[in-house]
């Protein structure tokens, strides 16, 4: 994957000086190995995020770029310049086979999203990795978006993550795709990605949501979490799968009402009814909240802020 920038001459010159001359040279090193009198050169890069696919690579670079700007206290001025900068992403090796354009306003929002998300983290030990504050919320969720399917070619385990990031970079947060990843991880008895709430809230607050706004997300996510807490440890946990398999709005609501009756609870379902046209997204948000109550590491959803839990 290759990417390059375009903007009015003055803004482009300033942005490239920051990105290429300062950030790029700091992160990338040329390694030299000599064998049998011949020198072999290689590029060495230090990135916090793994990458197997093009959109993952760009997102990993953007995460490092935002950290760099914050360390240099250059975030605000670079964001102002970035509003006019288009990013052209070209995929493929040898012969190009796909391209994508990120408009300056979208790039500005992506930087704002990562800034918020980085600030939601805290210094922590995650397995063998020591994560700094600005890395933890990004790394722990991102690296947990793996769907185990191929031991020989691990890149295939991250096809869903690549698709999720492709949409993320275009300004869309795909709850349905995320729910599929979550359900697969539950099926394989793997932990759910931490910081889900921080990712979602940070993104919706910056982008505004293409399908759902922050208020609706909090209502439906909170409903799912509340149901999950009441289901936990009972034979009603099977409803996470019955709801997931529902193939239409009516079937989904019937299962939900049935679950409420068995729990002897009366919960407000109006946010779901009010968004019937987007019922698949509503189902995904509700299930993700439910799964975090049953299996996840996130704390109870908050009404304010972008907090998450590891």
Description:
- By secondary structure, this protein is of the alpha+beta class.
- The chain folds into two domains: 1-121, no CATH class; 199-310, no CATH class.
- 55% of the residues lie in helices and 12% in strands.
- It is built from 13 helices and seven strands.
- The strands form three sheets. The chain has a three-stranded antiparallel beta sheet. Strands 2-3 form a two-stranded antiparallel ribbon.
- Helix 4 (104-119) packs across helix 5 and helix 9 packs across helix 13 (279-294).
- Mean pLDDT is 90; it is low at 300-310.
Short descriptors:
two-stranded antiparallel ribbon; alpha+beta; three-stranded antiparallel beta sheet; 310 residues; 2 domains; disordered C terminus
Secondary structural class: alpha+beta
Helix % is 40-55%
- The total beta strand count reads 7
Number of domains: 2
Shape: globular
What is the topology, as strand order, of the major beta sheet? 1-4-5
Low-confidence stretches: 300-310
pLDDT averaged residue by residue: 90
Q: How many helices does DSSP assign? A: 13
Q: Mind describing the biggest β-sheet?
A: 3 strands, antiparallel
Distance between the termini: 32 Å
Q: Proportion of β residues?
A: 5-15%
Topology order in helix (H) and strand (E) letters: EHEEHHEEHEEHHHHHHHHH
């Amino acid at each position: 994957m290759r990417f390059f920038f375009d903007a009015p001459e003055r803004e482009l010159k300033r942005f490239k000086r920051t990105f290429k001359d300062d950030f790029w040279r700091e992160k990338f090193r040329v390694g030299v190995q000599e064998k049998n009198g011949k020198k072999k050169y290689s590029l060495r890069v230090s990135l916090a995020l793994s990458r197997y696919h093009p959109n993952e690579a760009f997102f990993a670079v953007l995460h490092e770029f935002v950290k760099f700007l914050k360390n240099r206290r250059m975030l605000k001025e670079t964001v102002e310049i970035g509003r006019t900068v288009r990013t052209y992403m070209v995929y493929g090796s040898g012969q190009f086979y796909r391209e994508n354009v990120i408009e300056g306003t979208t790039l500005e929002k992506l930087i704002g999203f990562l800034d918020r998300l980085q600030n939601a983290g805290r210094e922590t030990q995650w397995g063998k990795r020591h994560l700094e504050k600005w890395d933890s919320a990004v790394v722990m969720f991102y690296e947990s978006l793996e769907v185990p399917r191929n031991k020989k070619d691990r890149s295939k385990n991250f096809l869903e993550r690549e698709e999720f990031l492709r949409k993320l970079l275009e300004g869309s947060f795909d709850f349905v795709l995320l729910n599929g990843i979550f359900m697969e991880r539950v099926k394989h008895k793997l932990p759910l990605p931490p910081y889900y709430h921080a990712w979602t809230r940070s993104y919706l607050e910056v982008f505004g949501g293409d399908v759902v706004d922050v208020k609706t997300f909090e209502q439906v996510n909170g409903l799912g979490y509340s149901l999950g807490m009441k289901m936990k440890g009972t034979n009603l946990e099977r409803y996470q799968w019955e709801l997931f398999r529902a193939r239409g709005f009516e079937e989904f609501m019937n299962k939900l009402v049935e679950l409420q009756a068995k729990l002897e609870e009366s919960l407000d379902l109006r946010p779901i009814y009010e968004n019937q046209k987007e019922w698949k997204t509503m189902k995904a948000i509700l299930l993700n909240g439910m799964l975090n109550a049953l299996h996840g590491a996130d704390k109870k959803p908050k009404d304010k802020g972008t907090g998450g839990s590891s």
